[in-house]
Amino acid sequence: MAENDNSQEKTEQPTPKRLKDAREKGQVPRSRELTMTLVMLVGATTLYLTGGRYAERLSGVLERGFSVERGRLYDDQFILEYLAAQIADGLLTVAPKLLILVIVALMAPALIGGWNFSQKALVPKPERLNPIKGLKRVFGPRGLMELFKAMGKFLLVGSAAILVVYLSSDRFLTLGSMPTLPAMATAVGIAGFALISLSATLILIAAIDVPFQLHTHNKQLRMTRKEVRDEQKETEGQPEVKSKQRSLQQEISSRRMAEAVPKADVVVTNPTHFAVALKYDSDNMAAPVVVAKGADHMAAAIRRIAQEAGVPLLEAPPLARALFRSAEIGQSIPAELYVAVAEVMAWVYQIRNPARRGERLKPPNPDVDEANED
Predict the structure, then answer these.
(1) Is 0.90 surpassed by the pTM of this model?
(2) How far, in Å, CA of 311 to CA of 275, rounded?
(3) How far apart (Å, rounded) are the C-alpha atoms in residues 80 and 75?
(4) Which domains does the chain have, with CATH numbers?
(5) Tens digit of pLDDT for each residue in 77-99?
(6) Can you give the pLDDT at residue 199?
(7) Residue 80 φ then ψ, to 5°
(8) Cβ–Cβ < 8 Å for 292, 254
(9) Higher per-residue confidence, 235 vs 105
(10) Helices 51-65 & 32-49, crossing angle to 10 degrees?
């Protein structure tokens, strides 16, 4: 009973298939704190570094907006065209900064979960409307974490804001006595510095949130031992199916062997453990080819088929082992066995020569380097 209970506990790490299926459903780790922190840091840094240029362009927009002749204010067509031109000028001024922020917002999620677009995630799920599950999400670990993050952000950002205002109070008071362009440049610089300071405080929140999101995602996808076994069965197939596949493969192999062995020139044996059938056609082959090979029961079947078909059998254990281990079916023999196999083929041609029929020819004993047997 205890073993059964343990098998239901999600103690196993998610398998690659589980992770892949979750990704297809849109379940990937995400940290809004990381995205927000990066966007604010990049935006504040660009504003601080290019504040003078932005202030100059925005000052020009304001000056043109307030320098319209009084008489033209009553021209409806002019006002509309002038307003559209000012809006376009203002958008072009801030467009580079907005483009940078959009790129950062798109790149940030790829840091922990990668880009992912899943149509399954867009399908409405009725269970999300269940109020009980909604309360569990609110008061669960994730909800509590969100509450602590909100309180932490409030305390950190609030403290940083008070400190920035205190340190920049003298500069704030001098803005009213400065000309328009210097005042705007100073204001943009103060805003950039303030945003950098406030965004830097969020790094601590992001540093806590990212590991938490990764841990939560991994915990949600953990599997029980039974789920792991079921997935393996589903991936690799049921034992009876695999047994049936092996039987079919053996049957197909036996059929091919039954067709190939009678066409072989010679079968080299171990004599009982290995059997390798060779064929050589000088017009179409650069070297003899292994047309069938087998061990134990398969070797016995090859010898039986060869005897029934009248194919010569040669007992040469070292050569049989070397051929079995160094050449696959349909492949030419390796170059280091050319000399040994040439002796065998010469013996085959001799016993097939009608002029020497009836003679007792001594079978060759090819010398094979022991290294070729491994």
Answers:
(1) no
(2) 13
(3) 9
(4) 12-233 (no CATH), 258-373 (3.40.1690.10)
(5) 777 887 788 788 778 877 888 88
(6) 78
(7) -65, -45
(8) no
(9) 105
(10) 70
